[in-house]
Amino acid sequence: MKAIHVHEFGDPEVMVLEDAADPTPGAGQILVDVKAAGVNPVDTTFRSGAHPLSKSLALPWTPGIDAAGDVVAVGEGVSGFAPGDRVFGAAVSGAYAEKALLNPFRTAKLPDNLSYEEGASLPVVLYTAYYALIYKAGLKAGETVLIHAGAGGVGCMGIQIAKAAGARVITTVSSEEKAAFCRDFGADVVVNYREEDFAERCLAETGGVGVDSVIEMVVVENFDADCRAVKKYGCIVVLGAGTGKNPVGSVNYPPFYSKDIDVRGLSLFNSDPVFPEMIRQLDLLLADGRVRASVGETMPLADAARAHDLLMTGKIFGKIVLTMGG
Q: For the chain, what is the mean pLDDT?
């Protein structure tokens, strides 16, 4: 098979397309003929060596978590999946490859109404958004939530999940084009943060009270304003510092503690206890169309470096997906 290999951590150009041996499923694994692989910001931090877990990776290493394709074989102890099943889920051997091993615990059947490309765009962003909103923020019907970066992968999924839960959604974008994109996915209020103070807008939209919760992807730039935007006893869920951003920053503490704000970190790696129920609920949302995929651009596997470069620009809407055979 062909696979992307990283022989040393660094810029996107360290990713090269090479021949590789087909993986063999072990106990508790699914072997999948990959049709498409999603590209996520976390892929770039692993590839660059900036992620704390990068040092634990054996080189050469294949990037990628999100994969969609057809089941080829199942390992011992795997139930619920059989050869020929269309699936999407989390790869344990690297998704940027023509074949990959998937974790059945984090894999689901691909609904008939979704393409492989759409399926590959979903796992990380879909699961992260649901985990952040429903389990971390405890979002309820009638509440107002601020979801940053609404035109991105997690943001787009978050808007739809929040609307399905009966919440009102405020989101931030950097252009009118992105604003139209977010409105199409259900956002109630869209704020161009380059032209308007999003915290002031949140207060105006909530009668001065503030939003119930904030889903934050660029905490190094937004934390102080988030504290102004959220209500007393509100919740800020922190997903990351921002794609390509320095993970170190400073905050102004008084607004944080004077309002009794609950700040919660999030890593999808820690979501195992709730994962089966998450998949069950998300299957329903996907099947009836309340949540739909957003593929911003597709490109062949050989263009993985270009995909990472494009992702870092922040100019893409939805998800970038790599396709096999091109």
A: 93
Kindly report the backbone phi and psi dihedral angles of residue 128, in degrees, each rounded to the nearest multiple of 5, phi listed first.
-65, -45
Rg (CA), the chain: 20
Query: For the residues 202-207, what does the mean pLDDT come to?
Result: 98
Question: Exposed, middle or buried: residue 55 (CB in 10 Å: 0-12, 13-18, 19+)?
Answer: exposed
- Rounded to two decimals, the pTM is 0.89
Contacts of 317 (CB under 8 A, 6+ apart): 151, 156, 177, 178, 181, 294, 296
Contacts of 36 (CB under 8 A, 6+ apart): 67, 68, 69, 116, 117, 119, 120, 298, 321, 322, 323, 324
Can you read off the two tokens belonging to residue 74? 């199942």
User: 265: which strand partners?
Assistant: 238
Amino acid at 84: G
Over the stretch 21-39, which tens digit does the pLDDT of each residue have?
999 999 999 999 999 999 9
What pLDDT is attached to residue 24? 96
pLDDT digits (tens, 9 = 90+) for 6-19: 999 999 999 999 99
Cα–Cα nearest to 193, from 210, 170, 214, 215: 170
At 100 the three-state DSSP class reads strand
CA separation, residue 9 to residues 14, 46, 48, 95, 209 (Å): 7, 8, 5, 17, 46
Task: Give pLDDT tens digits for 238-259.
Answer: 997 665 555 666 667 667 778 9
Say how many C-beta atoms besides its own lie within 10 A of residue 79's C-beta.
7
